[in-house]
Amino acid sequence: MIQRVQTIYLILTFAVTSILMFFIPLWITVDAKPYYFMQNQLYVILLGLSTMLTIVSVISYKKRQNQFVMGRLNIILNLILLGLFVYHSLNLSGETPAVSEKGIGMFLPIVAIVLLVLANKAIKKDEDLVKSVDRLR
User: Fold this and answer.
1) How many CB atoms lie within 10 A of CB 85?
2) Does pLDDT of 134 surpass 70?
3) Structure confidence by residue, pLDDT tens digits, 68-80
4) Burial, 107: exposed, middle or buried (Cβ in 10 Å; 0-12, 13-18, 19+)?
5) Residues near 58 by Cβ (< 8 Å), separated by ≥ 6?
6) How far is Cα 19 from Cα 123, in angstroms, rounded to an integer?
7) Whole-angstrom Cα distance, residue 131 to residue 67?
8) How many angstroms from the chain centroid is the CA of residue 10?
9) How far is CA 98 from CA 28, 33, 41, 89, 132, in A?
């Protein structure tokens, strides 16, 4: 059923990975111009894959095992994305008087990872419940 709790977590993950990343800058450079993730093609590809996996996971609510695997793949994608964000933020020059500020957008993959872990826990709980009912038959 689509009204399960993991669907809510997956829709919130979709909101974080697709909508919020367009509006919240990753960091603000020395010139006080915000740097958005859309300026790097690798970020766009990884976030596009993450968003697509989230939508496919929501749609495939009847196949809980596939949904669980897609959640794990999505967690791995978000970890890679977070690593790239941290790597690029550490390489920013901060030696000038106008030090670059790190934006909150860099930590949005952490929110997505937490939501995906909660969704995977709920999927696992549903799968265990179905298996326990099947044992009783």
Assistant:
1) 22
2) yes
3) 999 999 999 999 9
4) middle
5) 2, 7, 10, 11, 14
6) 24
7) 16
8) 9
9) 11, 12, 27, 15, 61
Residue type, 85: F
**Angle (nearest 5°) at CA 50 between 48 and 56:** 100
Token output for 68: 């669980």
Unique residue bearing structure tokens 């790097």: 40
Locate 5 and state its tokens: 């709790």
Number of C-alpha atoms within 13 angstroms, CB side, residue 66?
11
* Predicted model pTM: 0.83
Residue matched to tokens 């970020």: 43
Nearest to 116 by CA among 13, 19, 47, 1: 13
